[in-house]
Amino acid sequence: MTSATHPVGSGLTARIRSEERDVDLALTLATGETVAVLGPNGAGKSTLVTALAGLLRPDEASIRLDGTVLAGDGTWLPAHRRGVALLAQDALLFPHLDARENVAFGPRSAGVPRRAAREAAERWLHDLGVADLADRRPSELSGGQAQRVALARALATEPRLLLLDEPMAALDVSVAPEIRRLLRRVLADRTTILVTHDVLDALALADRVVVVEDGRVVEDGPTREVLTRPRSAFGARIAGLDLIAGSMRDGRLVTPDGLAIDGTPSEPLPDGTPTVAVVSPADVAVHLDAPGGSPRNTMSATITHLEPFGDHVLVRTDVADARITLASAAELDLSPGTRVHLVVKATAVALHPARPGAPGAS
Where does the record place the Mop domain (predicted)? Predict the structure, then answer.
């Protein structure tokens, strides 16, 4: 269900800067594109979303949506005039209104007559599978039901930009897949920014992934490329991969502390190129003594902690992670503080160019 009232435009172009929060973010979206924004807590994601929604006025902002200036050039449109809808992890429904009136509130605020607003509300409630809950108040709804109603309320305003800030974080794990499927359907052809910590949200819903760290964009690319070929520490962590940063020297990646790693470059990498080595923990072997034999990368490391991982153990170290069997962990008698040698074949290491100035790049 899409609106016929908003002309097709050029999408979103935004630059947000806040000195107090040390945030300087630039972002673009094509019309109808869904972009997932990932990053650790405190990275600047909430600053981005609230500034786009008009709820936070940063030191500097330049925001243009479908040809309309929302901020910049002396302009600062208030939230209700932006054509932007924000859905957070808490539904934040009005407790004194039933579901129908909660959804109708958005259109009514935009000047739509009461009857037309209620009709729009009932259409959206039906489209999201909760028409039978129209007369219930928020206290009578489950978490999943309340989030469906909140989504209907956001979409009933026919926004030109939809902002989803951790929309499934507060839901029971049994409900999240259902809401994810629903979002996949209703977000088709909608210009959407999805802030999430869950890699499944990005895989299921996003055309692109933007990774934010320390108030800056550190990765931006197609979803599967970012999640399979990460170039930032956070990107690697959410993808369950190891990432080692350095720069190229004589055809190898060399870290700032002198560790040299052989691998397969994804493209020509001249000497001096900031580079990251990406490897799956499943391809990393753990030894108590340095092994010999065929050409392999060997890295001395100290175990920081051990985590169960199904029928395996995730061995976390100060260099990289390894995933080994329970039997191997028991045989090696591993524990935090143990010095080990991590070994990985060069053929299992992918070398990718890193952004200039990436942490660890020499």
Answer: 292-353
